Amino acid sequence: MLIGDSEAEGLVYPLNDYCIANNHKLVGCVKWYSATVFNFAKSDTIVKIVRKFNPTYVMVVVGLNEIYARDLKDREKAAKLLVKKLQGRPYCWIGPAN
After folding, report:
1. Exposure check for the chain: N or C terminus, fewer CB within 10 A?
2. What span, in angstroms and rounded, lies between the C-alpha atoms of 46 and 70?
3. Could you give the C-alpha distances from 93 to 4, 59, 62, in angstroms and in order?
4. Residue 9 burial (CB < 10 Å; 0-12/13-18/19+)?
């Protein structure tokens, strides 16, 4: 599964091609335009999506809207909360294309 800000929209198609070529299945993509880690951490959206699609691996694309952020401690807390919402599934962060 792929979740993220608008960058996810650009990644979903080549990622899906990769999954097909390697016998994986991209079970879903959550694109939240202009999102930051706070949006994903503070809403119940991810919990609902994870329950619905039951992914075995989650790729998180969040960060481009945060490259000038100064409140890094708050964002770190939000990132940890987001990880909890993945309910123990393996995941990776795909950094912003800055």
Report:
1. C
2. 25
3. 10, 6, 8
4. middle
Tally Cβ neighbours within 10 Å of residue 65: 18
User: What is the sign of the dihedral through the CA atoms of 38, 42, 43 and 47?
Assistant: positive
Tell me if 85 sits within 8 A of 49, measured CB to CB. Answer: no
3-state helix, strand, coil in the chain (%, to 5): 50, 15, 40
Asked if 79 and 37 count as a contact pair (C-beta separation under 8 A), the reply is: yes
CA distance 56 to 96: 23
Placement of tokens 């930051």 in the chain: 36
Q: Give per-residue pLDDT as tens, 37-57.
A: 999 999 998 999 999 999 999
